[in-house]
Amino acid sequence: xxxxxxxxxxxxxxxxxxxxxxxxxxxxxxxxxxxxxxxxxxxxxxxxxxxxxxxxxxxxxxxxxxxxxxxxxxxxxxxxxxxxxxxxxxxxxxxxxxxxxxxxxxxxxxxxxxxxxxxxxxxxxxxxxxxxxxxxxxxxxxxxxxxxxxxxxxxxxxxxxxxxxxxxxxxxxxxxxxxxxxxxxxxxxxx
Length: 191
Hints:
The protein is built from 7 helices and 8 strands, in the order E-H-H-H-H-E-E-E-E-E-E-H-H-E-H. The protein has helices at 12-26, 28-47, 52-66, 70-86, 146-149, 153-164, 174-189, and strands at 4-9, 92-97, 101-107, 115-118, 124-127, 131-137, 140-145, 168-170. The two termini are 22 Å apart.
């Protein structure tokens, strides 16, 4: 049985979004250390702001904070440049969500071999305002545009969480994530 069917057409922006989510989900220790170092540099710089090196510490702490995604952006831009240089179009796929797995059908159809991803093989789920992200491992994943799901976004989120046994990690404020969870559970419990 087919539950959902969605097409994803990549672009330069989608590669960047995928790289950011990949960094968020798989580089947590890096993010934590970077944040703590940034905080330490800013505090030390503020305490010694009258010295020339205090200003330098504040500047470096701010740089660490604002350049969080620099390595992720580099990877996304490198991949985009390779695709543009090759003259090939950006990848596109159709995802068909069935009972136990997601079928991945490259577009245009028949160019490459179809594949599937069992929900049990998904290692992380992520979401932002525009996409759902399904990662098979730390090196690759799939994006599902929320716009293609329309009003089915909450149902789709619940469907994947139940099938994979995982919870979506969102790039939103914690209170918004809690409200999403409560409304999804309330909706699921209604007949």
